[in-house]
Amino acid sequence: MARQIKGVSQRVLDCAREEFLKKGFLDASLREIAQAAATSTGSIYTRFGDKEGLFRALVEPEASDLKALSQTLQQDEGEETTFSLYTHPRVLDFVYDHFDAFYLLAVAAHGTEYAGYLDELVEMEEHYAYQYLKRKGQNAASLTPAGRELVHILATAYCDGIFEPVRHRMSREKADAYVRLFETYHKAGFDAVFHTEQP
User: Fold this and answer.
1) DSSP state, residue 196
2) How many beta carbons lie within 10 A of that of residue 71, not counting itself?
3) Which regions in the chain score pLDDT beneath 50?
């Protein structure tokens, strides 16, 4: 087996990131990535398998780590600082510390296995919503089918909206202000609809 040249993989990742950020996954060209990285498409296939493998290498660690962080927050039954998983300061900090990966997930993942990443976050947010109801004295098991469906719809709208700062490349400071307002808006509506007790 030929020995891989040191530094090529990182150059490919750097050039792929720029290509995916500029064009999205479907329109990105392996040939142009290879040319920018001063290597061959064959060397990309050897290192990453294919174009989707290259995209995976750029987003998978962060995608998995955000879900792990969300699970940690879910498991903390005493957590009452936020209405949503995704308005928690630790989540916003994590997203902004790895901004390019989450921008790729938010706007460039169509055509990859990560096209459904938001749906995975929605599922986690639904669980968190039921924990929130429980903390507020609401028996989640008593919700009607329509009520449970509404929780899903609200979680979907919420997760989609919470990625707006990423899609619009807001500054960290502007994103923080947006998220606070977004949380206030959604929490008031959620509390009104589900008649949760005030603390």
Assistant:
1) P
2) 13
3) 1-3, 199
**Read out DSSP for 91-127?**
HHHHHHHTHHHHHHHHHS-TTSGGGGHHHHHHHHHHH
Cα 62 from Cα 139, distance rounded (Å): 34
Nearest Cα neighbor of 121 from 163, 61, 170, 184 is 163
The 8 Å CB, 24+ separation contacts for 48-54 are 48/12, 51/25, 52/25, 52/112, 52/113, 54/12, 54/13, 54/16, 54/30
What pLDDT does 1 receive?
38
Note whether 59 and 114 are within 8 A (CB).
Answer: yes
Position 18 scores a pLDDT of 96
Alpha-carbon distance 187 to 126, whole Å? 14
Query: How far, in Å, CA of 74 to CA of 79, rounded?
Result: 8
Q: Are 126 and 93 in contact (CB under 8 A)?
A: no
**Angle at Cα 77 formed by Cα 71 and Cα 79, nearest 5°?**
85
Residues found in the chain: 199
